[in-house]
Design brief:
2 domains; 78% helix; rod-shaped; mainly alpha
Amino acid sequence: MIDLEDKILRLLSESKGNLLEDVTLNETLKTSKKTSEKVKSDLESAEQTMKRIDETRETYRICGRVASILFFVLNDLNKIDPMYQFSLNWYKELFQTSIEESRNNNYGDRIKNIIKTHQLKVYK
């Protein structure tokens, strides 16, 4: 768009005579119009996509909340006995495994599957 704008400004400044008769200028204006319409439609599409992504992310926030509660409960177990020590990397792998295994369960809601599978993994 910037290149087209620069070209239009250059053609306007170099134009001598009737602007309507300048074929190069008219073609550049048509190209600029088509490009701006395409950019506008692409931006609208991107906004819709971002909205869907935001809505989907918000639905999975519950899973994150449950997973963080379980992690901090496990993390506090070492106060009872030093034997209970868990790393964040181990827990992330456990959560990732829970997500992958919840895909195999074809019953009910996806979010409930993730939470249920993860809770069972943690308690095992």
